[in-house]
Amino acid sequence: MRTTPPAAGRLSNTFYLVPAIVAIAIGAGVFAFTRAREPIPALSEQTLSRQVNAAVALTSDPDAELAPRFSVDGQKVIYVRRNTQRNEIVIHDLLSGNRSVAVAAQAILSSPVFFPDGKRIAYWRRTSGGCQIVERDIAANTQRTLLDCALDPQSRFDISPDGKHLVFAAQVRGYPSKLMRFDLVTSEISVLTQPSAGDGNDMLPRFSPDGARIAFFRGAESRQRSWIVDVAAPHAAEAVTTVEGLSYGLSWLGPQGPLLVAADWGGFRALNRLDIKTGETKSLGGRGARFPDVAGDGNIIFETAANRANIWLTDTAEPGKQRQVLWPSTGYSSQPEFSQDGLRVAFISNREGSDGIYIGVLGGAVRRLPLPEGFRYIRPHWSPDGRQVVVVSFPVNNSGTVRQQAVRVDVESGRHEVVTEAGNAVNAIHVLANGDLLVGELANYTMRLVRVSASNGAKSRLALPPVAEYAVSGNMLVYTLPQVFGATRCELDTLKCTPLKIALNDENRFDWTLARDAIWFHGSNIEGKRALNRYDLASGIIVSHGFAPSGAGASLAVSPDSKQMIVLQEEPPVIDLMLAGRK
Known about the structure:
The chain is mainly β. Helices cover 2% and strands 48% of the residues.
């Protein structure tokens, strides 16, 4: 129940727009924690790595424990505890080991954070009626709404060290989500960042310890980079590094940095140290780490999540009715593609550590292609004759100029070579029927489509706008545009194009695939439930099925004869909290 009126949020300048606490004693704390009085001292990569890899479990319940944050004095941790029946916000006292439930609700709860006074918390909640960011006085057991759903604030937000402002990400008029600052005294909202269409979304903001800057991520899916914006006008923002990937939160290791970043920069999710002055990144370990937080005395807490995803084979006539998992593992597999004979599948997986390209034979074995270490390999596509795959390659922890190249790999021998004629800004590459290459060249967060001649290596840019994603089947090209609903179908030989009224946009940017007669995509059915949809290219009719894909990265593939398909399915993760005490 709302006990005080909600604050009326308004955009300045340009835009206008439960139960009582229950104490649970669980025993002594893991470490002796003291009030932080000094800034976090500079820590070397080796010291941080030892600290991270000596982390111990703070929680190991069957429930998922999420979004941990320290209190200002570093003596408490607040987090979300969730299962299929309940959502709770829990406060863990690190000195006594006591846990108390601060909020329990029939709602999705996320991102709890202490106010500097330690007496109040703020958190995000969503019900069938919408979302809001709520402030709660713990002792008085009262709460008020800070932000409602007018701007649909994203679930990850932060409060400034002085407790006067809140930063959150939200979309305005369909553009990429931007960072906004909410004044907790006046309720005024000001815009901090202005990503351009195609840049991707701004997300996961965190104030620096002195409140002068905000670190965040910008991008889409596996192309997210770390950025910093000044809180003071004119809110100058710049990328900290050229390294990009799937990102899972960050925290400051001091007012001037570095940043502690959870990302898959090394081919698997882990904690990384990012120097904000040089852009240099170093992996610290902590495999599986997400959403880290750093206390004033240097203690670190983070989620550890064991994620697993496998690819499933099923019939296109009735997807999901008959299905089998292909080459199961405890790792994460994605980006599948059938060979032209429909008998083999190329995909990426981290089942043996870092990402690698695998070739599996239907009904047979799977093997990893022997590619050089020190690089990541993504987006495998077959040559028309089935003898080779072409992939995108880039160095692990590349802190300099982005250099993404195409690599051609002989499937049988493993021999490989860089496709130099494709250039050094390759984001995707397909081999066409006549041997020409269709290259998606990086252009900020979009791609320019370039055709490379098989006979002389000459490059010619297609007279098309920068695209978000594209797919090829025979002479047919289908592409989507950033921040635009729908898709476009073209004939490659004439570039005669036709718009398609299909529910593709940035939200399911990677969750679609092109077959010879249809587009299959992850979307919703007429009841608004998650579905696997088939868009018939001849009639425009959409048929929905219940076997919806889930997970990160490209999640669908259809065999050349359109009789079989592969669907990525992610298993529910096991998530606990890890505490890395400063020695």
